[in-house]
Amino acid sequence: MEWCDDGIVLASRPHGESSAVVQLLTRVHGRHAGLVRGGASRRGRHVVEPGTLVSATWRARLAEHLGHLALDPTRHVGARLLEDPARLAALNAACTLAAEVLPEREPHVGVFEGMLTLLETLQADSEGALWPAVYVHWELGLLGELGFGLDLTCCAATGKSYDLAFVSPRTGRAVSRDIGTPYADRLLILPSFLHGGTEAGPEAISQGLAITGHFFACYVFDPVDRSMPQARGRLVELLERRGASGQKH
After folding, report:
1. Which CATH architecture best describes the domain 80-245?
2. What's the Rg (C-alpha) of the chain?
3. Domain residues of the chain, as ranges?
4. What are 169-183's pLDDT values in tens digits?
5. What is the C-alpha separation between 123 and 127, in angstroms, rounded?
6. 2-76 has which CATH code?
């Protein structure tokens, strides 16, 4: 058995003296693991860092085997973000979420393409004003790929598509301001950038992350008695700290 594909390194763990078991998100073959010889060595460690873009070749005798991966790195994203803890945290949060929630060996092209967009934005957004919103949209896309897509296009009660202000924490559907205001303490706040607006300041990003975090917990982690990944909590903490200090980067 053999295939070649584009991939993004999600995670790795040492195996034996110098090898590593590496989790990739691939374009065609989904989340896929394999053994990388030399992946835990001093020379090979940089290849298996989360967020590294690779050209991957997987080989195994049988399809159900772990198999071996040969990785040719095409871009080292993490190394370019070392001076910005928040961006690096976003990279690690996305990789960790994908590694923990995507079913193995099932194609999710939308998630792969979305992560490519996220990684590109993390590198290119010099002012730091765009990537947090792109990250929140990526999490929404990931929920959708898992079968838990939210309907933020129109009010669940009236069907109107304007003046949307809340999200039902039970159904994941938008609620208009006039309908939801009396029950605001029971609803999640819907920031405008998630339904056609452009304002994505620190408060709006926090609201967006609260929405996706709630539904990841309810639909993905709580049913199997697991907690949200610490890497995502680290991102939320850094963004809240950045918002409080008024920083952009």
Report:
1. Up-down Bundle (1.20)
2. 19
3. 2-76, 80-245
4. 999 999 999 999 999
5. 11
6. 2.40.50.140
